[in-house]
Amino acid sequence: METLQTERLILRDWKLNDVDDFYEYAKVDGVGEMAGWPHHQSIDESLRILKSFIDKGEVYAVVLKETNKVIGSLGIMNRSMDPDYPGKIHREIGYVLSKDYWGHGLMSEAVKEAIKYTFEKQHADVIWCGHFDINDRSRRVVEKCGFRFYKKGIYEAKLLGKSFDESCYLITKEEYLNQ
Questions:
Q1: N or C end of the chain: which has fewer CB within 10 A?
Q2: Closest by alpha carbon to 41, among 58, 28, 31?
Q3: DSSP 8-class letter at 79
Q4: Domains, the chain, with CATH or none
Q5: Beta-carbon contacts of residue 98 (< 8 Å; ≥ 6 apart)
Q6: Which residues sit opposite 11 in a β-bridge?
Q7: Which pLDDT does position 81 carry in this prediction?
Q8: For every residue of 105-170, which 3-state class applies, written as one string?
Q9: What is the per-residue pLDDT for 85?
Q10: Rg of the Cα trace of the chain?
């Protein structure tokens, strides 16, 4: 993956030595649960998941430039989400941010850069993003980044053993270019 930069952030490949920063935010109750996974119970669990990020190459480490600390993750996944856009190149963006950094506009900054990269470098036609309806912070990120509401759904969070009402959003390349 290409390294991306914003005013305050670097989005880069994960490294094994990021495990302490990853575990620090992933172990906090309420962080992973807003994305459909339970908070981490051990650094070994974080290391196992970190290795899967590295192997798949779809998830960026979100690094705060000021401290060079990993404070979150942002994935750009190759997914076809809906038959309404046949023959198009689809991507889905998902993200998690350390609770310590909520409310500072950092994830909106990261997602905007990811959108730019996905349309301009990966040549996507449609980008999807969603959030659980109980997650107002994520809803605000989606709205600030220019996504439009598409449909309601149910997300089966198998790792948590529960279902969540979710809202799905999208932005097309044409909409992005006309912003």
A1: C
A2: 28
A3: -
A4: 4-177 (3.40.630.30)
A5: 24, 25, 28, 31, 71, 72
A6: 4, 62
A7: 63
A8: CHHHHHHHHHHHHHHHCCCCCEEEEEEECCCHHHHHHHHHCCCEEEEEEEEEECCCCEEEEEEEEE
A9: 80
A10: 16
Strands in 162-172's sheet, in edge-to-edge order, are: 4-5, 9-12, 59-64, 69-77, 90-97, 126-132, 162-172, 148-157
Report whether 137 contacts 101 (CB < 8 A): no
User: Alpha-carbon distance 27 to 98, whole Å?
Assistant: 10
Paired strand residues for 131: 167
Q: What averages of pLDDT result for each successive group of 10 residues across the chain (179 residues)?
A: 96 98 95 86 95 95 98 91 80 96 97 98 95 92 96 85 90 94
Contact 147, 131 (CB under 8 A): no
Instruction: Give the Cα separation of 155 and 152 in Å (integer).
Output: 10
Confidence at residue 82, expressed as pLDDT on a 0 to 100 scale: 67
Cα 139 from chain centre:
12
